[in-house]
């Protein structure tokens, strides 16, 4: 199964991608997670990416495309993959098309998780992420068993730097300008399926699995 998870910031891409990756035993590839790991390790890439991420802007295409192409060429992607947060611009989508063509493979589905802006701004205030393993929680909709502690690795839960309301609003503007055109792009290729991301987390997962099939 070769999938892309598309959607606004906070639509639930990461939450759903993890569940879908577990269900189909495919790697979950999140460009946001790759950048955050690089920031944590203070790599050159991380330092460059951080200046954009903190402002709610996209990291330039040339810094993203090669990372994803390299990742897709690793052995564990032979059975498929789910891309979360990539592509995010038309040039990235075209670069991905070329990379897939060279690898002689095609996408199965592009899953568009649809959530209106108002719901997103409310949602983001409640998000918490594990500072160690990156697992995502929500104080109300997906609370950890113990306050401020990750269920998986017992790491401390923190609020992401870019989840301040003003940065979330900027990320939403950037989404509408640069990422939303991908809905049209993948509709024309007849690869897009859309799910209602405002429903319960479990219901969204069920709907995606129903669309993809066993
Ligand atoms: P990235 O990490 O990809 O962030 P994002 O797209 O802004 O999306 P989020 O991770 O914030 O949200 P999500 O959709 O994964 O939602 P989640 O499941 O966490 O990118 C960060 C930055 O990196 C970008 O701004 C950019 O600078 C850079 N970057 C990354 N990729 C790039 C690229 N390709 N090109 C250029 N730059 C790039 O859910 C959100 C919250 O809601 C959680 O608390 C969750 O528990 C809760 N929740 C989830 N589903 C539901 C539901 N159904 N009901 C209620 N609550 C829910
Ligand atoms: Mg995410
Ligand atoms: Zn953890």
Describe the structure.
The protein is an alpha/beta fold. The chain has a domain at 2-115 and 179-211: P-loop containing nucleotide triphosphate hydrolases (Rossmann fold). Helices cover 48% and strands 15% of the residues. The protein contains nine helices and eight strands. It has helices spanning 13-24, 31-40, 44-53, 61-72, 90-103, 117-125, 165-179, 181-188, 201-212, and strands at 2-7, 28-30, 81-84, 109-114, 127-130, 136-138, 157-158, 192-196. The strands form two sheets. It has a five-stranded parallel beta sheet with strand order 2-3-1-4-8, sandwiched between helices. Bound molecules: BIS(adenosine)-5'-pentaphosphate, magnesium ion (MG) and zinc ion. Zinc ion binds next to loops.
Topology, element by element:
Elements: E1 2-7, H1 13-24, E2 28-30, H2 31-40, H3 44-53, H4 61-72, E3 81-84, H5 90-103, E4 109-114, H6 117-125, E5 127-130, E6 136-138, E7 157-158, H7 165-179, H8 181-188, E8 192-196, H9 201-212
Parallel strand pairs: 1-3, 1-4, 2-3, 4-8
Antiparallel strand pairs: 5-6, 5-7
Helix pairs in contact: 1-9, 2-3, 4-5, 6-7
Bound molecules: BIS(adenosine)-5'-pentaphosphate, magnesium ion and zinc ion (ZN).
List the keywords.
single chain, 214 residues, alpha/beta, Rossmann fold, five-stranded parallel sheet, three-stranded antiparallel sheet, 9 helices, 8 strands, globular, binds BIS(adenosine)-5'-pentaphosphate, binds magnesium ion, binds zinc ion
